[in-house]
Amino acid sequence: MGLDIKIPIGLMFLLFGVMLTIFGLATGSNTEMYKISLNININLWSGLFMVVFGTLMLVFSKGLFNRK
Amino acid sequence: MGTSFTLQWLDWSIIILYFIFVLGIGYTLRKYMKNASAFLEAGRSLPAWVTGLAFISANLGALEVIGMAASGAKYGLTTVHFYWIGAIPAMVFLAIFMMPFYYGSKARSVPEYLKLRFDEKTRGFNAFSFAIMTVFASGISMYAMALLAQVILPLKFEIGPFTEFDFYLLFSAFIVLMYTYLGGLTSAIYNEVLQFFLIVIGFLPLVILGLINVGGWEGLKANLAENMVHSWKFTGSPDANPMGVEWFGIVMGLGFVLSFGYWCTNFLVVQRAMAAGSMSAARKTPLIGAIPKMLIPFLVIFPGMIAIALTAIPESNFSLPIKGGGYDYDMVIPSLLVHYFPTGILGLGITALLASFMSGMAGNVSAFNTVWTYDIYQSYINPNKSDKHYLRVGRLTTIFGVLVSILTAYVARLFNNVMDFLQLIFAFINAPLFATFLLGMFWKRATGHGAFYGLISGTLAAAIHHGLTAPAGATTLFKGGWLTGGIENAVHVYPSEMAQNFWTAIYAFSACLIITIILSVFTKQLKTVNDLKGLVYSLTPKYREEGLSWYKKPEFLSVIILLIALVLSIIYW
Q1: Angle subtended by helix axes B164-214 and B216-223, to nearest 10
Q2: Is the ipTM here above 0.90?
Q3: How many other C-beta atoms are found inside a 10 Å radius of the C-beta of residue A2?
Q4: Mean pLDDT of B105-134
């Protein structure tokens, strides 16, 4: 069906990932904020995970990098 | 209001971006919706991993997520029975034995299969009850979403009788309407896949933080009662486990009748498999879905258990809201989100919840579209029109379905009893269904009259059993005892509502099976051998996967899946 679902999934998670990674880096010194997440910078880690996941989805999608 | 979230710009941006992506998917797909089949059946063109994830995602609506977390808190690890014994064997059975008939026959829906295999009245009964049921399910999901959004989202206002409740309800209905109207079943399925990844990526950090906090699996065990951390160990007698059901009721009622009835005959999920691009992909759909299905308990049941364990650890500062003298178990997920997630990831967690609410609605609306257009409109109202006509009807049905869902949501809000009553009726109608399909697919002698009156008898048996018995502690006649002049006179009192449900299903299935067999023997088979080709096991050439290596065959995959489920059950014995 026309659109490969990997493209919107990849784009969305890449975007969310970049947003949370940057936000996590910017707020990394704010120990007060991350007290609730057990002093783990959960934004940074989740952000990085989503960047990797989103990129993988895009790499394996049809039409964006692979022309089949 | 301990669970109301304070959201910042980043959280709102994530939520809004998600809505943009959802609508964008519908908008991009709209130009491929050239005929009724593309709109209502996704053109039978999707890859197996997409239909496989949608297969379990359609069932992973927010009601399920919230409900399973609540069950995790109430019943502990016993809840995994809904995922392992209560889903995996049925999904494997659908893939191996039933999919060849659904996909290989000319049927475009489950009711249409019944028409081809049995007769018009059997199809009509199934089509109408399914259509009404899905619209109600979508309405109840919409109502629950607005109710939860009202509690957790910070936006509050009141303009005359119009409050934020109405805003959330109408807004979610509008989004669902837009993307289903534009992209049909494909759009609904694509958004279910998106929702699947959102749930996993949004809830995984929650479970990880929770487990770190309570000290891992050992910490959970230390802070919970022993019968909360075992799946089978305490099912020898119903009094020993928190669910109040013994192993036989679990295996036969849940694992066999209810689970096979749902996963193998409910068009909402079967439709996902029928949208696959080939027979091989259709058969792999439930199998691919089964793998994440086995692991979802860790995402939705663990939070409930973690929440209860945390209340036993004073220094965690965690508490669940109270409702009517006990914990408000439905607030497990929102409470944990607000407890562990700082701004940023909080937006993602809320998005995951909203996504599962909306795809729960869209799943029902897309299944309703197909059954309404093909099995009701084309069959009884306006047959023999052009394909373009049915495409237009399919589109308009989306609007109609969403409008009726909105209406249902308000009925649910005003008259809670009406909803309880309807859900009870649907439970009666669903309980015997699998017997009909089992006989239809594997016994060529089963006749239309047998099937139809078997179904009616099964439904009646369910109602009578429910009316004669009651669960312990029941207070309203919705729970049982309405045939004995009150709950206190019930013929049998079950230790829990769950046990009563499982046994209602067992009786309904048995009644349907027996009556269908008896009537089939005494009525004439009106279908010829030729009619039944492709619909019945013994008259269908065995389907062979050509050119697939042995490890890619569905049979091999099935064995692996059953083994994993077995190993998981032993580990969490």
Answers
A1: 100
A2: yes
A3: 15
A4: 91
**For residue B408, is it within any domain?**
yes
For chain A, the residues whose C-beta falls within 8 A of a C-beta of chain B are: 1-3, 5, 8-9, 11-13, 15-16, 19-20, 23-24, 27, 33-34, 36-38, 40, 42-43, 45-46, 49-50, 53
Is B556 among the domain residues?
yes
Tally A–B CB contacts below 8 A.
Answer: 89
> What is the percent of chain B with per-residue pLDDT over 90, rounded to a whole number?
42
Measured between CA atoms, the residue of chain A closest to residue B202 is A46
Q: How far is A54 from chain B (nearest CA, A)?
A: 11
Distances (CA, A) of B92 to A23, B56, B88, B223, B515: 44, 13, 6, 36, 27
Q: Does A5 contact B213 at a Cβ distance shorter than 8 Å?
A: no
Q: What phi and psi, each to the nearest 5 degrees, are found at residue B315?
A: -70, -10
B350 vs A: CB within 8 A? no
Q: What 8-state DSSP symbol labels residue B105?
A: S
Which of B348, B350, B351, B359 has the most A C-beta neighbours within 10 Å, making it the best mutation to test the interface with A?
B348
Number of H helices, E strands in chain B: 23, 6
Classify residue B324: in a domain, yes or no. Answer: no
**Token match 């009619």: residue?**
B531
What are the distances in angstroms from CA B504 to CA B432, B495, B529? 10, 14, 35
Is residue B184, in this structure, part of any structural domain at all? yes
Predicted confidence (pLDDT) per residue in B525-555, tens digit: 888 888 888 888 888 777 776 677 777 788 8
Using a CB-CB cut-off of 8 Å, the residues of chain B touching A3 are 25, 28-29, 32, 190
Q: Using an 8 Å Cβ cutoff, are B165 and B146 in contact?
A: yes
For the domain that residue B113 is a member of, what is the CATH number?
Answer: 1.20.1730.10
Q: What is the pLDDT of residues B412-466, one digit of tens each?
A: 888 777 767 777 887 888 889 999 999 999 998 999 999 999 999 999 999 999 9
Read off the pTM.
0.92
Token pair listed for B527: 């279908």
Instruction: Determine contact: B43 vs chain A, CB below 8 A.
Output: yes
Which of the two residues, B159 and B123, has the higher pLDDT score? Answer: B123
Q: How many domains does chain B have?
A: 1
Determine the distance in angstroms separating the CA of B444 from the nearest CA of chain A, rounded to an integer: 37
| Residue B32 at interface with chain A, using a CB cutoff of 8 Å | yes
pLDDT classification of B4: cutoffs 50, 70, 90:
low
Q: Which domain holds residue B396?
A: 39-310+344-419+543-571
Q: Which of B190, B340, B344 sits opposite A43 (nearest CB)?
A: B344
Q: How far apart are the first and last CA of chain B?
A: 39
